Amino acid sequence: MKCVIAGAHLRGVVKTYNLTFQECDPLQAVFAKHMCPNILKVHSRLLADIMIHFPTSQEEVTLSVTPMKVCFKSYTEEDTDFSKTMLTEIQLNPDEFDYFQVGVDSEVTFCLKELRGLLAFSEATSAPVSIHFDVSGKPIAFSIEDMVLEASFILATLSDIEKETASQQPPCFSQRQESSKTCMGKSEKTSLDKDSNTAAVASKKPQWNGNALITESAKPTSPLAEREIKSIPRVTKKDRTGTEGTATTAAEDHATPEGEAAASRYQEFHSLFFGAVSCKEQAASSHISHSLATASDTEEDFGNVQSSQVL
Amino acid sequence: MPFSTQPSASGEQYVLTASLDNARHLSSLLRAVHFQDHATCFATANGIRVTVEDAKCIQANAFIQAEIFQEFSVQEESVTFRINLSVLLDCLTIFGTSSLPGTSTALRMCYRGYGYPLMLFLEEGGVVTVCKINTQEPDELLDFDFCSTKVVNKIILQSEGLREAFAELDMTSEVLQITMSPDKPYFRLSTFGNAGSAHLDYPRDSDLMEAFHCNQTQTNRYKISLLKPSTKALALSCKVSIRTDAQGFLSLQYMIRNEDGQICFVEYYCCPDEDITEAEL
C-alpha cells in the first residue's frame, strides 16, 4: 500500500514521499463520555508541565479529585518500600482548569507512559485537552478537538477495591471517523489476587461482536475481589510477540495456576494510541488479526459490562 | 605578539611555518572533514591540504591556501605527515569554540620535519598554550582521478537549497541515490528508508541552480553513512558543485567563505555503491 505525498518546496524544489501503510480494521470503542460525572478541561501545556515532574520511570499516576481540589500523584503499590521511593504529588486549584466539573469524588490511576504520548501529540495542536472520567475502574478519556481533527485516548484505570491489586474495567475503544488513524495499542493486564490460593489467571480471548469489542468480566472465584481482565494485543513499534498476543483474564470457573502472569502483580493498561504504522509492525498487526480472529471463536459468559454507544 | 620574535632554537630550520591571526579559519574547515580520527597533511608553497579517508570509499579534502595565512613558509618541495585530527582540533580550539566578538585565538604552527612533532602556539587574551602533537608516517591516499575531462554531469547549486535536504535525509535508508539527467527529473536525491521512499527534485530552471551541465542520465547510489559527514561542509559553504564521472564516482566541492571573506574549498569524493547496478527511479 502506498501513499504519496508531494509538496512544493521553496524555489521550485519538489519533495515526494512514498509511504507504505496498511489498512487496519477499525474498532469501535464502547464508552460514553457524556455519562462521565467528572470533566476537566485543561491546556495541554499545563498537563505537560505537571507530568514533567514525575520521573520518566514512573509508570502509573493517580488523579484524585474532589470539588475543592485536583491532585496528581505517583501511584504506589502496597508493598512499596517508602524509604527507597520518591513520591511526587501535585495539587491544583479548580480555577487552573478551563473547565472543571466534579460530580463524584474519585481517585483514578492510569498509565503515565501512554499519556506522555498523547501530550507529545497535543503539543502539535494548541487545542485544550478534555479529561472525562468516573470512579476508579472506569475508563478515563483524554480528548483533543481541533478544527481539523478529533483525537480520543481512552485509558483503563485501576479498580481499587478494598486495596486489592484489582482488575480494571474493560476500556472500550472508540475510533472517530474524522479522526486521524488510530492504532490500538493495548497492553495486557493480568492481576493476581494475593489472597487466593490459586493464582487465577487463564488465557482468554476477547469476544468480538461485529465491530464492537466486548470484554467479559470474570466472576470472581474469591469472594473478595471482582476481577476483570482483558487484554488486547498491542500494536507498538516494539514487537510484542508470543503470549502477549492472547488476552488473559482472571479465572471464572477455571482457576489455573499462573502461567504467563508470572510477573504477578504486573498490571497493564489498555489504551488507544495514535501511532504511526510502519512496515515493522506488520508482524505485530498480523499477529493481532490472528488473535482477533480466534477470539470470535470462543464462547464465554458475558459479565456485567457497561456498554453504551460512543459519542 | 611574541610569535614574530620567536627565535628558532639553535638555528634549526622549520620545514613548515604558518601563522594565523584567527585559528578559527583553520579549525572550522578541519571540522568539515573530521569524520575520522586521523588525517594526512600535505603542505606545499601553495598551502595546506588535509585529507581524511574512510573505508577506501570516501575521501574528504580541506584546502587552506597560503594567502589565508598571515605568514606561510614551506622550505621543501612538499611536507607530508599523518596526524591525529581529533587532537589537532582539540588543540586549535583549546580556548573554547564559542566566538566572542573581537576575540580570536592566534595560531603559529611549526614543523621541523620527518620524525618531529607538530608544534602549535596558541594565544588568546595574553594566555599562551604550547601544544606538541606527534606526527606519523603518511598513509597512501586514494586517487579518484577526477579531472574535468572525465566529468559526465555537473551541477552547481547554492548550498542553502541542499542544506535542509541533507539535514533531513532519512538515515534509515542505506543509500543516497543521486540522479542527474538532461531530462526530467534533472537532479533528484532519493532515499529508501523504513517508512518508504522520499525523492527531492530540483528543477533545472530553479534559481538555486547556478550551473547545469548534464549530458547523460545517470543514477548512482552511495552509502548514506559515508556521505552524511559532508553535511558539515555543506553547512559552512555558500555553493556546492556536484559532479559524476563515467563510473559513477561522485565529487562534491564546497566553496566556503570564512569570517574575513576569504574563499576556501572542501571536497568530498565518494565511490558508488556497487551492489546496485540498476537503480530505481
TrEMBL record, chain A:
Residues annotated as region Disordered?
166-259, 285-311
The domain of life is: Eukaryota
Per its UniProt record, what InterPro entries does this chain match? Rad9/Ddc1
Protein localization: Nucleus
Gene3D superfamilies hit by this protein: 3.70.10.10
GO CC annotation, single: nucleus
Q: What is its EC number?
A: 3.1.11.2
Q: Listed GO molecular functions?
A: double-stranded DNA 3'-5' DNA exonuclease activity
Which intervals carry biased composition (Basic and acidic residues)? 186-196, 225-242
Which keywords does the record carry? DNA damage, Exonuclease, Hydrolase, Nuclease, Nucleus, Phosphoprotein
User: What does the entry give for GO biological process?
Assistant: DNA damage checkpoint signaling
Q: Where are stretches of biased composition, namely Polar residues?
A: 166-182, 206-220, 285-296
Q: Where are the transmembrane segments?
A: none
Keyword Cell wall biogenesis/degradation assigned: no
**Which of the seven top EC classes does this enzyme belong to?**
hydrolase
Q: What is its main location?
A: nucleus
Reaction catalysed by this enzyme: Exonucleolytic cleavage in the 3'- to 5'-direction to yield nucleoside 5'-phosphates
Q: Which PANTHER family match?
A: CELL CYCLE CHECKPOINT CONTROL PROTEIN RAD9B (PTHR15237:SF2), DNA REPAIR PROTEIN RAD9 (PTHR15237)
| Record family assignment | Belongs to the rad9 family.
Q: What does the protein in this record do?
A: Component of the 9-1-1 cell-cycle checkpoint response complex that plays a major role in DNA repair. The 9-1-1 complex is recruited to DNA lesion upon damage by the RAD17-replication factor C (RFC) clamp loader complex. Acts then as a sliding clamp platform on DNA for several proteins involved in long-patch base excision repair (LP-BER).
Q: What is this protein called?
A: Cell cycle checkpoint control protein RAD9A
Which organism does this record belong to?
Grus japonensis (Japanese crane)
Give the organism's phylogenetic lineage.
Eukaryota, Metazoa, Chordata, Craniata, Vertebrata
UniProtKB/TrEMBL annotation, chain B:
* The keyword Nucleus belongs to this UniProt entry's keyword annotation: yes
The main location is nucleus
One Pfam match, given by its short name, reads Rad1
A biological process term (GO) from this entry: DNA repair
Q: Which GO terms describe its cellular component?
A: checkpoint clamp complex
Family, similarity comment: Belongs to the rad1 family.
Oligomer status and interactors: Component of the toroidal 9-1-1 (RAD9-RAD1-HUS1) complex, composed of RAD9A, RAD1 and HUS1. The 9-1-1 complex associates with LIG1, POLB, FEN1, RAD17, HDAC1, RPA1 and RPA2. The 9-1-1 complex associates with the RAD17-RFC complex. RAD1 interacts with POLB, FEN1, HUS1, HUS1B, RAD9A and RAD9B. Interacts with DNAJC7. Interacts with RHNO1; interaction is direct.
User: Would you tell me the protein name for this molecule?
Assistant: Cell cycle checkpoint protein RAD1
Q: Which organism is it from?
A: Grus americana
Q: Which gene encodes it?
A: Rad1
